[in-house]
Structures are given as C-alpha cells and as structure tokens.
Amino acid sequence: MKIVPWARGLALVLSIALGGAAAADGHNPLADHVRDANGRFKDVKVAVAEGYTPIPCASGVDGGAMGVHYVNGEYLKDETPDIKRPQAVMYEPLPDGKMELVAVEYIASKGPASLEGQLFSFTGAPNRYGLGPFYELHVWAWKANPRGTFADMNPNVTCEHAHGK
After folding, report:
1. pLDDT (tens digit, 9 = 90+) per residue, 35-58?
2. Where are the beta strands (DSSP E) in the chain?
C-alpha cells in the first residue's frame, strides 16, 4: 500500500509546520523555559546590577534588529550554557527612553553548543564583533519573531529610538 508512506510523510510535514508555527507565536518549550528563568531582566536595572553592560543597538541590513545587547563579560568565559546565565540580554529602546526586554543570547566559545537540544549557530572569525569564532543562540522569549524563535534579527524590533544612533 502506497498510502501509508504518503500519510507518514504528510504527518511529518504537518508536525514540522505546526512546530514552526508554535515557535513563531512564542509557544516554543525552550522559549518558555528561558522566559521563566530570566524574567528578572524585564527591569534593565537588574541586568546592570548583575554585571551586564550595554553595547550599541544592532540592526540588520535586510531589516529588523536585535536591539541593545547588555553583555556579561564574566559569563562569556562559561564553557557550558546555563539557561539562567545568558551571556547577553537584549532590549528594544522605546520612544519614551525605556528599554523593553525582547530576547536573550547565549554564547559559547566551544562547540558544537546546545541548550535543551537546540543547537547554536556558528560565527567564524573575523566577525563584526572582533571576537574569535563562537557559537550563539538568540531566544526571542518576550517578543514574537516572524523569522523564528531562534533567528538573529527580528523585523518587529527597531533601533530607531536608540541613543547616539
């Protein structure tokens, strides 16, 4: 019967499509765990108190942005990703001057790296950050990203209101 392989293929395609849709609307299990572990960063003062310092707002050439990264230099030394200790906390600058938490970024110098089964992307050197090669994972846990929960840039984020643009 040829219908059985066809039905299995259709089931696989549907599960992938539905999984992607769930991720895009914020119902990704890893994004849920990240949100639970890092909700304290909704107040940017908490990030600063924990040793995070800002770097300029990052926007993409094809639209969208990552926002302002608050980076913890000590956590960049971590060899194993810890969901409660992201290397960067990402904020979108708002018109009123406030910073809205949108995502976190995990960075590892050794790889391949993963967090709860999600593989990190590799960035070679030289790169725009002036770093050696590294692995990174963005998790859009607070602001939906139509490009996906783990995409670099988010078309729903802007650097328009960043100071010193």
Report:
1. 999 999 999 999 999 999 999 999
2. 53-59, 65-71, 88-93, 99-108, 114-115, 118-119, 121-123, 134-139
